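Appendix B, record 7
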Amino acid sequence: MPSELDRTPAPAAARPALWRMAGTNLALGATVFVVWFVLGGDRALQAVANHWQVSLTMVFGSLVGGGTSEGGGAIAFPVMTKVLAVPAPQARLFTFAIQSVGMGAATLTIVLNRVPVEWRAIRNGAPWAVLGVVVSSLALAPRLDAPSVRLLFTAILVSLALALWISRRCAPDRRDELERVGSRERAVLFGAGLVGGLLSGAAGLGENTIMFALLVLGFRVCERVVTPTTVVLLTVVSWAGFATHVFLMNDFTGPVVDMWLAAVPIVAIGAPTGALICTRMSRDMIVRLLYVLISMEFVSTLLLVPMSGERAILFGLAIAWFTLICFRIATGGSCQPAKGQDAGATP
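Structure tokens (predicted):
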């Protein structure tokens, strides 16, 4: 039975015309495919044959990336590091490279079809996110070992799930945009951008998680508006991270290039399709999908990533610390469900 919040009318622009958006996606996918085939040639076709597992992974990764606040790396990074045994630095670089294409295509379809986006959050957060991802890629990521990166990645996603759970119990009210953006709000967006950029440089994503939590919990913006906002923001961060590796670190070579070629035509279609699906989903559906995906990521980390006692403690403390921050942001320290609504109700 639909909840009270889901019965609240969505803004008129919240659901762009289905066929118009589908046509945009088809044109984008066809354009990228032609460019990929013309420039990649035999190497591109051979890459698909040699790395079909990566292509298959990104069928799901691109849909998740375009349609949720997680990013395609939420699927690509754990599968590549835990299942395909790809070294974490290569998986992180692949995440930047493939998100530059897939999330870029999703951003184009969002912009061209006027999907509601909180542009003020992007304008204030993106420059600092770019600074953070460049600094982190150059100075922080090389100093982290593979298990630490994997645990950091999982902690970020689990914290997102906890943030959503807290917000739905303690701060169920939502609006379609930021109420105001004064000096205090800009400072918070600056900080979120910088912290998210630093996390993205280490794990391939993180900016989207930090901004999602801030906008949903702190500013009470609806998940249906925040999700495409984080897609656009992660696109900017991915472009900056990818450019850092290509032009400053010069490590976009060898097998990473072939894996990228194997996935390009997939994500060019999948990510915009995910963005289209997101515009047809309710708040409930978006959040429940995130719960499922993050639960799978958490369980796979516990089963597949070696974890010493010290790492387990740090992992738990990181999740608890971020959860406490989310609770303070959402409620000011007190949790009082909306009047007439059970604490466990799903908005």
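Remarks on this record: The longest helix spans residues 18-50. Residues 18-331 form one domain.
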